[in-house]
Amino acid sequence: MKAISSSCIHHHLPVAHHRRTNQTFIIRGFQEVATLPKQQSASSRLSQSFSNLLRLHVDTPPRTDFQSSTGISLIDEKHSTPTCSPKEDISNKWSEIHGSCDWDNILDPLQPWLRREIVKYGEFAQATYDAFDFDSFSEYCGSCRYNQHKLFKELGLEKNGYMVSKYIYAMSHIDVPQWLERSHLLDTWSKDSNWMGYVAVSDDQESSRIGRRDIVVAWRGTVAPSEWYEDFQRKLEPVGHGEAKVEHGFLSIYTSKRESSRYNKSSASDQVMKEVTRLVQLYKQRGEQVSLTITGHSLGGALALLNAYEAATSLPGLPISVISFGAPRVGNIAFGDELHQLGVKTLRVVVKQDMVPRMPGLVFNERLQKFDDITGTLKWVYTHVGAELKLDVQSSPYLKRGFNLPGFHSLETYLHLIDGFHSKTSTFREGARRDIALVNKACDMLVDELRIPHAWYQFANKGLVRNAHGRWVKQVRDPEDIPSPARETHHQAFSVEMLATDEGLARTLC
Predict the structure, then answer these.
(1) Which residues are known to be catalytic?
(2) What integer pLDDT is reported at residue 64 of this predicted model?
(3) Contact 247, 153 (CB under 8 A)
């Protein structure tokens, strides 16, 4: 793979240094007057031109009063409330959530029970970033920081009622510039594979609440989405047996394997399908209704579609839905048609100002279908599939206005906007409960009045600890968190026992 350049944008995960944008065209939130200098710098003019090209509206938001009628800060009021609403029984709504009616009439206005489920799956996707080791000075760079039994506990996701059953690793046989960080060290846990996500399954209590046994696959995204325009739109490659074609780079990550590697003797495709098939058979033998929900952000959303296509082909009759966030186009019109015929339901969550969902195919895309009578079906045109839930950065009074590509694309920005979305014609939802501070985990999107540091999410002392002699050294991982194919095989075998027995007792034993 190509070496990582110093310009790589790390906007999802803990960062050691995050340069603040110093561009004169950015208009800070809550300023009544913003005057642009007559002589703009070249970079400012270029950025403004790019903003115009993408039709991004940059202006000054109206002044917002953060004081409630009682004189108490609205932020302080939020700090004294839970970050999520109480769970409710949605067992009679699961087919609608799964897209049985293509989400007609429940996206605008957005139904509360659907909003909470979308956020749940978004948090599963966010976990693939929060647990990923991006430290280029770590010998475990590119791995998950925690073993599969600790993942949800460490990230505070136990409340969702799912258990991780398998980790997924991926590699690529082509040069994929900057899609992941590689260690500076020669002696590393893996020289070619990277942790790309996981498979999880709902426990008994959650399955009862949502009306079926839900198998989830969560895929991790890339760290430099701004480079996709150049690197991920050059070649469509056939998939399946028809005329469907998908982007070459995405397919390479999903299907590449090498016998000499530690983690990719089998491809990500083989790994995920083997585990999903096992879980489907396990629960169907127990007489349960089973569904497969695949989620991912950015590149992860593209991998989610490839995964859904394969699963629908291999497991006919299984309800399959994809809930993606900020995902690019993946394939041609025939690929979208085949997904529809296979019964895959896709809900794409996009932010109006985010440029990644516009690629590949910034110019030549599904809009050309209206000329089919003249041109015929264009096999080389990229197209989006499924229903779309479009969000707008300007709907939130807590977000800065200005040109901020990493901030627009950040999954935490997406989750904040979903939490506050009610309808296209209404203002930001007052009852939004999700912690606002999460937006600035790895970017600078919150208005300065909130006093939340930008890119605050990082490990204490950036991973250094004092040893017995008082010297600062790299922290040693717990042995159970060190990547090991043998250990993960053992953990998976143990997970089979956990899932096949009484889950409450199994969690107690763990």
Answers:
(1) 298, 354, 409
(2) 58
(3) no
